[in-house]
Amino acid sequence: MESLMLESPLLTRNEAAMYCRVGLRTFDRRVAPYVRTVPIGARRFYDRKDIDTWLASQKASPYTATSAPDIGLCVSPTTGSGKSDPHVNAITAALKRSRRKSSRR
User: Structural domain of residue 15, as residue ranges?
Assistant: First the structure.
C-alpha cells in the first residue's frame, strides 16, 4: 500500500508541500494559488505534473536570483556612496534625536 501511494500522481496538501520541500504555510501562500486541485469527493488533491510545471516556470522566471547581488547598485540613499539628499539627512538626524529623547539608558 505504501509504494502505491508514492507512485500516485495525486498528492495531498501535506505531500505536495513535502514534494516542494516547503512548509504548509509557505505552500499555501506561494504554490497552492498557482496550481489547480483535483477534487475527488470532499477531498482535494494536487497533480504532481502541475506542480512540476509550476516549479519549472519558477526556474525560468527572470525575477529569481541566479547569482550574488551586485553590491555596487545600492538603492538606499542612506547607504552606499555616502552622498545623499540633504532632506534625507535632516529626517535621519531628527529621527536619531527623537530616539535618544524617548529611550532611557
Answer: 2-60
CA-wise closest residue to 47 among 56, 39, 37, 55:
37
Q: How many CB atoms lie within 10 A of CB 20?
A: 20
pTM: 0.53
Residue 51 forms part of a structural domain: yes
Per-residue pLDDT of the chain (105 residues; tens, 9 = 90+): 455 455 789 999 999 999 999 999 999 999 999 999 999 999 999 999 999 999 999 887 666 554 444 444 445 555 544 556 777 778 777 777 766 555 565
Q: How far separated are the first and last CA of the chain, in Å rounded?
A: 64
Q: Are residues 52 and 6 in the same domain?
A: yes
67 within domain boundaries: no
